[in-house]
Structure formats: structure tokens, C-alpha cells
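Lab channel / #folding
Pinned by the channel admin:
"Please post every new chain as: sequence first, then the C-alpha cells as a reply. Keep commentary short and put observations after the output so the thread stays searchable."

First post following the new format, from NK:
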Amino acid sequence: MKQTDYNKIEAYMQQCMQDSAHDREHVYRVLNVALAIAAREQNVNTDILIAACLLHDIARKEQTENPSLCHAQRGAEKAFRFLTENGFAAAFAEHVAACISTHRFRGNNPPESIEAKILFDADKIDATGTLGIARTLQYNADHGEPLYSLDENGNVLDGSGDSAPSFFQEYRFKLEKVYDKLLTDSGRAIAAERRQSAVAFYNSMLHEVRNSYAEGKALLQGCLETEE
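Reply from TO:
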């Protein structure tokens, strides 16, 4: 890709990114990981991949404002329009848009090209390891969501059966399952290197919180006088 083309696409991406958990640095991390995967795969069009990575989250703002919108589909439309209006070939724009539209992969629209599969994996890898945990905690804080929930008896729930949003709930519902969804061997290998740190963080945090509640309840009970 020519440097001038890269600069043009990057500048447009930077105008669009306003979500703290899906910010510019998320985009650059996805691009970096995607290129690392591409270096181990065959017949990858890196121009397509670079453009798709840079533009994959450009419609996050629209989805935040209107949750009924899919940022992947809306982003594909925006990317196609931007690219064709700025001198890129229609076939190039169509391929980039197809990668973006499937990077979320929910329903019956899986990534098909190698570039789309790499983008999908690179985006999901950014939700793995302690980095994925940090992003989740940042998102939860921005949206006023707690670290964990309690049952009716005041016991700390581990997130597996929770309906209320929390970090533990997001970890059990989403983060721990990401590793089984990747599409490329290279992506799975990168994610596997990060998995242990995420598991250790979650288990340690759950252990610390539950122990503090159990010990604190017992100590508090000893401090309270029963009324006769």
C-alpha cells in the first residue's frame, strides 16, 4: 500500500473513533496482530487487510447512539463510500467492505476470504488475555457496571448464571469463550499464549472477593450485639 493511501485511510479512521474501549489504539493493535497472522498465512492481500483493519470500527459511534444498528454492517457501508469517493477501485472497496461486514460474525454471515478471517481473528484476539480484561473493565467503568453481582444472601456470584451485567458476567459469557471461535491456526496460536493470564486474573479476583466477603461477614457478626 502506498504511504499516501495509508495516511488517507488512517486520517478518516481517526475522525470516526470516539469509543474508549474501541479507540484508535484498539484499531492499531488489531492491525498489528492481523499483520502478524498474515505473515504466517498464504496469499493474503495486505492492502485489503490494512484498509479493513483501519476501518473496521468506524461505525461504533452510530451503534452506541442507536443500539439497533450493527456497527459492522454500517461500517462496511461507510468504508465502501469513503474508499470509492477517494479514488480507490470499486472492487477494492467491495472486498474491504466484505471484511468489515463479517468481522462481528453473528448470524449467518461468516468471514469468507482469508483477509476477512484474519480481521475477525485479530479483532477477537484484542479481547483475549489481560488486555481483553483491561478493556472490559474500562468499558464497564464507562457504563457504570459493577465488577460482580451478589445473590439474595449476599454471596458473590461468579458470573456464570448472572443476568445482570458485571465484569464476572462478561468474562463468563464472552471473554472465556473467545478462544474457541477463532478461524486461523495462527490466530489460535497467538490467543493461546494469552489465555493463561486471563484465567489466572479471573480466578484470583474471584478468590480475593469471595474471601473478603466470607471473612468480613464473620468478623462483622462478632462485632454486633444481639438485642434481648
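NK: The radius of gyration is 21 Å.
TO: also worth noting, The longest helix spans residues 185-223.
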